[in-house]
What does this fold into?
Amino acid sequence: MTQQRTTATHHDNQHHCGLDADLARLLGRPATRRQSLRWLCAGVGAAALPVAGCGGGGDGSADGYGISTSTTTTGAGTTGGGSAACSVIPEETGGPYPGDGTNRNANGVANALVLSGIVRSDIRASVAGASGVAQGVPLTIRLRIENVAQGCAAAEGAAVYLWHCTREGGYSMYSSGIVDENYLRGVQEADSDGWVTFTTIFPGCYDGRMPHVHFEVYPTLARSTSAANRVKTSQFAFPLATLNEAYASSGYATSVRNLARISYATDNVFSDGTDLQMASVSGNATQGYTATLAVGVSF
It folds into this structure.
């Protein structure tokens, strides 16, 4: 599916000042931010969908949406999870490489949202005339977008713009050698059950950050043409056991070294907790992984 897009003009200055500035901004947030996110929809009873990666107990079974309600580790992969009431996922920095029209690269304004072909499920190859293909361990990302304002009902028709780094830790549209590529970026419209699915590769770990995936949520596909219309910017993480397993694969040697120097406790985004941002992961490094997360947004 291809679309002609219009250039976004909104500029978000606070996301592009580097790790030190991001850390200072995060430390300045109220200490009760996480607490205010919990149990927003406790009154919806059986209609509430457990959010993946929220801690707590469980019997290890999956709910009706394939999202695990406990944390387990097996030889076939690691599942991080838990249970929680209907909650809004934390707002996080889009970082210095959003490619959503809010900053510039070596070629000018970096805006993947206006590219022909950017609305797609498989994001491993570049579009719009670029020909690069990202290599790495296969990864399927499944996000269920939920409207917290409606008891976490499926947000059918919402759109997600998602991006992450290569296995070497670089970002298309910005990093040396791949400025003219746009792979590992894509937009998807949520189906009737609120799901968006991306086929990609497992991201690497670059120095100073725990491995993560960025995404922005938009109210509709039509409004995803401009970053000014985004209603949520956030990130999600992966269980440490999954990271160690994936990074034993060819091409991830740098990630092994970088991961040894960082932790979720010292990461400038996840140091205040990953309750609502830890994906449930199944699979293995040979056959590929599937990462699943429920994303609560208030429309």
Remarks:
- The helical segments are 18-27, 33-37, 240-246, 253-259.
